[in-house]
Amino acid sequence: MVQKSNTKECPSCAMDIDPKAEFCPICEYHFPKRNPVYQWIAILLAILMLMLMLF
Ligand SMILES: [Zn+2]
Q1: What is the mean pLDDT of residues 20-36?
Q2: CA of 35 to the centre of ligand 1 (A)
Q3: 20 forms bridges with which residues in the sheet?
Q4: Is residue 1 included in any domain, yes or no?
Q5: Contact 4, 16 (CB under 8 A)
Q6: Burial tier of 15 (Cβ tally within 10 Å: 0-12, 13-18, 19+)
Q7: How confident is the model at residue 14 (pLDDT cuts 50, 70, 90)?
Q8: Number of domains making up the chain
Q9: 16 C-alpha to center of ligand 1: Å?
Q10: What phi and psi, each to the nearest 5 degrees, are found at residue 21?
Q11: Could you tell me if residue 2 is inside a domain?
Q12: Distance 29 CA to ligand 1 centre (A)
């Protein structure tokens, strides 16, 4: 059988797990994922700075 590398290694316990998993089922390590919320916060902060500059 040909084993495809359909897994990712957990940096915490070094186990091969589902690459789509948001956290490791063995040690419950949470994988950091790109969160678009941070981009919105950055945009809102930029707008706030502009508001402060204007008023
Ligand atoms: Zn783990």
Answers
A1: 86
A2: 21
A3: none
A4: no
A5: no
A6: middle
A7: very high
A8: 1
A9: 8
A10: -65, 135
A11: no
A12: 5
In a domain, 20, yes or no: yes
d(C-alpha 11, C-alpha 23), whole Å? 11
Indicate whether 16 belongs to any domain.
yes
> What pLDDT sits at residue 1?
58
The reported pTM is 0.49
Domain region containing 27: 8-54
Q: What is the DSSP string of the chain?
A: -PPP---EE-TTT--EE-TT-SB-TTT-PBPP---HHHHHHHHHHHHHHHHHHH-
| C-alpha of residue 8 to centroid of ligand 1, in Å | 10
Q: In angstroms, rounded to a whole number, what is the distance separating the alpha carbons of residues 29 and 9?
A: 11
Confidence bin at 3 (pLDDT 50/70/90): low
